[in-house]
Amino acid sequence: MTNNRGKYTIPVIHKPKQNYEKSPETIKEISLELLRPFNNHPFHLYEGKQLEDLANSIKQNGVMQPIHIRPADKEKYEILAGHNRVEASKEAGLEKIPAIIHKDMSDEDAAIFVVESNFNQRSCKDMQPSEFANSLYMLNEAMKKKSGYRSDKEDVVEGSQSNNRTRTMHLIGDKYGLSQSSIARYIRLAYLIKELQERVDNKQISKSVAVQLSYLDITLQQNIEELLKDGLSIDIEQAKKICELSKDEMLDKEKIAKILVSQKQECKPRRVRLNEEILSRFFPDNQSQDDIQDTITKALELYYSQLSKKAP
């Protein structure tokens, strides 16, 4: 099933009724009012028909798979897995939801749990670029804090690859079949402002352009977003030029606009081709291209001259 954001696969959360007594974890019915989303949750939630379908399923079958939560402040709980089930349960009119409570879970372990539980349900290809970028960023940061490794740490043991294998990006790549360079590029997208991330999702700017823009400070990114809203576009060469100039001088919105406009004006000239039927109708076979161009130019000048005379 898809929604208007792009390709999404609904996780299988409604299974045949399970015997919860066999679960090693304790399952409790928790009030929906006591639940709050995970801080900086990187994944898009269901909306529209997708949320409606899940709510209708819950009305008919109940929540067949418990959500995962951990204790939070003020006697509330933070959702680790099951954000869509919580929202759909509210839509279905439920007051409580079955939940597995993870006590004494660190922030790092919680972040890893949130990302990996989602990755286990969905293919990376089914995620929007911003989702994948923000989730990889969260996973990488949590793993670095937990294990003390740096993703950019150099191998200091001569002839050994052991340190390379402990890099967080290497570990993530091994687990999910991704190259370290691919992970690094996606993580760069997490440094973009929300508006530019959405442009990547909507394919209004390419990932290669987005990576370049991610190295700019927030103010410059906001300037670029405002210019794109005004109808300008940006390609990889323009993005590279802006990033290069940002190292040596104080860029502002006006200077960025000049780069976008000037390079736009330097684009290759448009070419219009006339099919053979039109050419044969108005021009003899032995007429040169220059003569044909001159004739068309004169005809257009006459046409627009007469058109302006008819205008009130």
Describe this structure in words.
By secondary structure, the protein is α/β, with parallel strands linked by helices. 51% of the residues lie in helices and 7% in strands. The protein has 14 helices and 5 strands. It has helices spanning 48-61, 83-91, 107-119, 129-147, 162-165, 168-176, 180-189, 194-201, 207-213, 218-229, 236-248, 253-265, 276-282, 289-310, and strands spanning 27-31, 35-36, 67-71, 77-81, 96-101. Strands 1-5-3-4-2 form a 5-stranded mixed β-sheet. A hairpin with a 5-residue loop joins strand 3 (67-71) and strand 4. The chain starts with 26 loop residues before the first strand and ends with a helix. Residues 1-24 and 150-166 have low confidence and may be disordered.
Task: Kindly summarize this structure in a few lines.
This protein is an alpha/beta fold and 312 residues long.
Average of the residue pLDDT scores:
81
Q: What best-fitting shape do the alpha-carbon axes yield?
A: elongated
The low-confidence runs, each spanning 5 or more residues with pLDDT under 50, are 1-24, 150-166
Strand content: 5-15%
- Please list the strands of the largest sheet in the order they lie side by side: 1-5-3-4-2
Portion of residues within helices: 40-55%
